[in-house]
Amino acid sequence: MQLGFFFDQTRCSGCEACVLACKQWHSEDEDAVDYITVIEQEKGSYPDVQVKWLFLPCFHCADPPCIKVCPAEAIAKRAEDGLVTVDRGKCLGKLECGALCQKACPYGAPRFREQPSAKMEKCDGCPDRLEQGKDPICVASCPLFALAFGPTTERETRSGVTREVDGFRYRNGVGPSITFKPKR
Amino acid sequence: MKSIRKVPTGGCHDCGGRCPYTLHVEEGRVKRMEPHSTLRACVRGYAARQEAYSQDRLQQPLKRVGARGKGEFTTIGWDEALDIVALEMKRVKDQYGSDATLLLESGGRPGAAGPRIAVLFGKFGGCLISWGGPSAEGYVWASRATYGSLVTGNSRDDLVNSRMIMMWGWNPVDTIFSTGTSYQLVRAKEAGARIIGIDPRFTSSLAVFADQWIPIRPGTDTAMLTSMAYVLIEENLHDMAFLNKYTVGFEEYKNYVMGEGDSVPKTPEWAERITGTPAQAIRSLAREYARTKPAALITGYSAGRTASGEQFHRAAATLACMTGNVGISGGSSGGFENVLGLATLLGGNTTVGSRVHEAPGRLSLAGTLDSNLRNKTRVHWAKIWDAVLEGKAGGYPGDIKLLYVVGANPLNQCLDTNKGVEALRKLEFVVVHEQFMTPTARFADIVLPVSQHWATDSVMRPWYAGDYYVYGNKAIDSLPGTKSDYEISCELAARLGITGFPEKSPEEWQRDLVRTEPEMRRDIQDFDKFKKAGIWNIRVERPAISLRKQIEDPDANPFPTPSGKIEIFSSKIAELNSPDIPAVPKYIEDEPNMPDKYPLRLISFHHRVRAHSCFDNVNWLRRLEPQRVWINKDDARRRAIKDGELVQIFNERGVVRIPAKVTERIMPGVVAIGEGGWYRPDGQGVDEGGCVNVLIESRHSPGGAFVSNCNYVEVKGGL
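^ Those are the sequences you sent over. The predicted structure of the assembly is below.
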């Protein structure tokens, strides 16, 4: 089974509640990094303007490029649900390995804090919450209910659901686990 | 493994949301926040922990040592600090009388426990107080005049029944009134409602919900509404049966609209010149509104925070009547207000006990539409600095010597900040209760460090349409060195020789509140169950439609106005006999100051990462969206300003220096700065914090609205 996200782009208002809900769940530190990035796309010209947002966590890819490049074998993919996890005890740190995982990821999911010795951290899919039958914190926090999380196969057959939206390419051979309801 | 205690509580600041959530507490410290399953918090809520444990929290009383406003303080003990405050309170009262002390108390901390400093002043012989907050005054005035009531809204879950929704200056994604409102718009949109946004900015709300954006020049909304009325009359699209049955004064209004008195027919072409909105768009909107039923015209307060802001809300209500959308499911009275049967703001503040704290012998102001009468006895928030500087000689009700500030940041949030600096320097004594060294606290003589609301029990309710109450269970102890506003009041009472000042535990206060406050007594049957769950859902028939009874059976249920009908012509306003406040809604032009020198209209909006000025010092939030001035690409190009570039925004009142957000999402000729950025003057007095009120004139509309959105500036790049 592969768990993954569903993002209803038509409902996203770019409020970033998901970003901070995730951040406070995972860290108390002032210098904590965001595991989710929300990108704003402004198009058109006044007064025919459109704004869309893109939700970018870790996509827990089918074949994660980050795993292949990690010299310390610190990144792994869980057999039971496909979540991609990092063992920070094994991670060599940003400077020592040159943040190879971050460079390999087409979506920029691996994050490092500022210090040269910072270990990789990223969206972990909230396994602690999944165990309790809860959604990941980002999904549980969205005021407009634009996010869902679950087995990817269930959704891919639904009509109107896509694997790509403007600004996001589905890469074969990587297989990001996310589907979209795109905003036209 | 350490044990985690899960505490149901809620709220973060004085916002209209009041979100319920559960805190995970480990060894006396808040570790995490779990959102409610459906009433979900926003970014501000998720950053509340960073604020609560910020290293900037004040934990010792401070006494000023340098010149006032320099920010030079020494720490002192609580006893010494309270002795000084009590001594000054007595000195000023004895030397100058009760009117020499102005108390500014606002909602910087939600649901404070027990009676606060206001009750203390009541027992101390009273003091001068304020009226007219920066919020909804235009609406409140208009609704009282027109409907005789503020209970005019439909519950939010009724939005799904609207076939058309006009979001007029309404941005519920960023400005949260009743948590969960935005999700009801998702439902409405997905049910097929056509949604049109009328706003100078293409806000996030419009980006996600609106099918069409109609930009409009700030301060001209009434002109557009009036010309929509013209279209309805000209094309005979108005609901005469409704107007005859439920309203008075339509004929007078029609005469004004058609130009019979002033020879100016208020056509869409007339409005186009004023609003900048094409006449054709106005015609289409008017026709669509008249022909689509039910349709909800929902107004935010921003368009009412203008020179004649109450006229906007009066005109919107009139248009809602002309289309027969009042008191029906899927419609709207033209506002979006308190809802019958739900938690409103009408039952008083969530503070127990007497709030009679004015000096004795004052006139009763309840329900009056006469701002002059109010100004004779109280100080309007927009005029606080003028009152300090001019005193009785300037027509204000006191010569103010002592300013007492609780849960407020007036230097930042009142109008004309530089005038505020001058006024604060003139005062004899300034006391501020604060968690942080805010711009106002910098000007204090004594700063008393207060605790955060998670450290005490409290009861909260969302504003206007919330179908629940929140019990804010105490989750943590106060930070060492801090006291609650209530504890400070008790300790000052002892020093002032005030006996019988009520001393109860915060939980006992909440119990009393729930037992005595009319709405809570009506709604909450079981206090212990409420406290345990942290939330109490109100059971009412849904959706709730406030004015339904008046519409379905008007003879048995007259409107609470002098005529018993909706007053398009208001006899109460007519009695005031003032050209600034006509008895039927009219567009009144506000003359710009020096339009050649300052050609850009400035608006001030609620920023998504702050609750007014709260949270501006939280880095997690600042990083999401730094303070910037919105400017249209054409205006930026003409001034050679690039996106992200540091620019100066200035007029005759002051200078603000922040980066520009160059965007197509704002009307040309308009610039916008989110309110609440902390005033941070450099050596030359240029504000680097982005406090919009540096640029705003200190005035209020005839009805009492802050005139926040009628100011003019120039913007300069290449610094």
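The CA atoms of residues 8 and 181 of chain A lie 5 Å apart. Chain A has one domain: 3-181.

Shout if you want it in another format.
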